[in-house]
Amino acid sequence: MYTRRNHKHLTRAQKQAFVAAVLELKRNGTYDDLVRTHQRYFVPDDDDGLRVGHMTPSFFPWHRRYLLEFENALRALDSSLSVPYWDWTTDNTPAAALWGEDFLGGTGRAGDRQVMTGAFAYERGNWPIRVGVTDGHYLTRNLGRPDRPIALPTAAELQWAVEDPVYDASPWDSTASGGGFRNKLEGWAAPRSERWRNHNKVHQWIGGHMTGATSPNDPAFWLHHSFVDLVWDRWQARHPDSGYLPAGPLGIADRQRGRVISLDEAMPPWDQTPHELLGHQGVYRYE
Predict the structure, then answer these.
(1) At residue 174, does pLDDT exceed 90?
(2) Average per-residue pLDDT in the chain?
């Protein structure tokens, strides 16, 4: 069993090793394949077909399995590695160590939002964007969105989600308004005065590539979702009698039938169910 750590506790050598492995996954094509997977399974409410990655109860187990794909690829290169996490409720400014030259690099420059610092800057020659390219082949960010300022989620906003004892609720999508931890943490459910909360708000705060279906183009994606995975752990510990919903396949009359993964149905592209991913004991732990 290995440990996922807060990125703030990584040594300089550990940061260098993580960055080097991510760059190698980019070089050998593994990284872009992972980005394509996320793009393929980002299915909004109003699209036809199965919704498995977002706006759906399987948001947490699907991303747990997805992170393991990335982490296993890293560890195949260097068994000392794991995916660090970023607690955005406390480490919440563009000046945070996360965005340093020695780790993920900083925000994008004015005008085209191109990231110019760190190993993932396009000008370094190692991080061309190949999946979901629109205007350029470079990584973009707009930390804090200065033109329309947005703050990262607070501890109170996160707690608002964690305190909900219900995992998810009908209609099992972004419009679920009758409560539900999943929709509150994913961030579609928000007070009328806000458009996003929690997970979604973080994507918007980073900006650039993190705002779309190909958000894993930005390596910050993995640290963000590692923390989301940890928060799911915290919710489970707080509500031990609350389980994944829906527990069984939806009824024939339910308009979401065939679009939502229930507890024991396999999630593509893997042959694993949410039930099998409710815990990670024996694989990794959080520190």
Answers:
(1) no
(2) 94
Prediction pTM value? 0.96
Q: How confident is the model at residue 73 (pLDDT cuts 50, 70, 90)?
A: very high
The CATH number of domain 2-286, selected from 1.10.3720.10, 1.10.1280.10, 1.10.10.10, 3.20.20.100: 1.10.1280.10
**What's the burial of 100, exposed, middle or buried (CB within 10 Å: 0-12/13-18/19+)?**
middle
Give CA–CA dist 251/258, Å, rounded.
10
The identity of residue 231, as a single letter, is: V
Enumerate the domain spans of the chain.
Answer: 2-286
| Two tokens, residue 117 | 């610092």
80-131 pLDDT, tens digit each: 999 999 999 999 999 999 999 999 999 999 989 999 999 999 999 999 999 9
